[in-house]
Amino acid sequence: MYATIAVPLSVYAMTGGDDWPLALLGQGHGFEMLFGFALAVVAGYTLGPTEPRLLLALFSLWLIARITHFIAPFSLLALAPSMLFGLVLAWRIVPRFVAAKKWRNKLLMPLLGGLCVLPTSYLVAQQLGTPVLSRLVLHETVLFLSLLMAFMGGRIIAPAAAGELYKRGRDLEARVQPRIEAAFIALLVIAAPALAIPGGAVLAGNMCVLAGALIILRLLRWQLWHWLSRLDLVALCVGYAWLGLGLSLFGIAIASGWHITGALHIITVGALGTLTSGVMSRTHYQREHHSAPPGLLSVWLAACIAIAALARVGANFATGAQWALLLWFAAAAWALCFGVLSWLQLVRRIEAKSVL
User: Fold this and answer.
1) pLDDT tens-digit series, residues 47-98
2) Domain spans, the chain
3) Is the preceding omega at residue 21 within 30 degrees of 0, hence cis?
4) Which residues contact 239 (CB under 8 A, 6 or more apart)?
5) CA dist., res. 4 & res. 340, Å (int)
6) Alpha helix segments (H runs only) across the chain
7) pTM above 0.90, yes or no
């Protein structure tokens, strides 16, 4: 629901002329999409069964962070609840991966921990009054989220692809593809600190380009052309393709300084939007209906996000009225995707209450 509301509000702030809401202008837009939307999605995906009191406490911190940021943008009062939300989330989810045996699985501890601590880093950067450092924290967050999407997306798609091929009498040898997974993990682990080091942009960019290429290679080895009838899985593969493309373009952009905003939105709109909406719908239908989501729904969600991503990137090359029109087109497509998901969730709960 927040994704549905926040993006149109942000575009209104950028194009409406009165700078309202100020919290969604400039870096505020990135802050809310990464720490307001994406980190909440990470919480929902990783928490698992949780005590209602803890869920209420986490949700309260998240909601207070959104409200205070709208009232007093970028103030200590506004950023502190986001910091606390991240730290409490880290305290809850990071210890779960202590027992992991493979180093690639153990990586989730520092990865999730680092992602949850980044709101604290942003608060420090804001208090120091250094916009360059604040922007760097947001870029690092995109890298952390990209690695998490590459890792978790593969763990969802690989077994599902193998199962579909098995039903068709085929065997998928390239499932998790541990060597490729280890390679893009290592590349992005190098890219993250390199991005923060003066003069390290070229190294970080090259690492991102290579990581993006490996993600595309991994995707191709899942042979999705043999199971195109499973549109829900195809939609997840589309999100994975957005991620590979976005990382490569992001690497080129940070190494050259060319159209970095467009590359960022391929990841944060195309990849993040497609994968999160696909996983949300898949989880909802598995839990409520014990089935895969309808193919038409999966196509709708992926198509809306594709339109949003292309329109948002196109806005970088437009000016004046065309720029504003493309921004609104992107916001409308994004809102239609997550608006439908919100409607599905609400209708199901209303139906459940009426039965009770």
Assistant:
1) 988 899 999 999 999 999 999 999 999 999 999 999 999 999 999 999 888 7
2) 1-128, 130-356
3) yes
4) 149, 153, 270, 271, 273, 274, 275, 278, 302, 305
5) 9
6) 2-15, 27-31, 39-46, 52-71, 76-93, 103-106, 108-128, 131-167, 178-196, 201-220, 231-256, 260-265, 272-288, 295-315, 320-355
7) yes
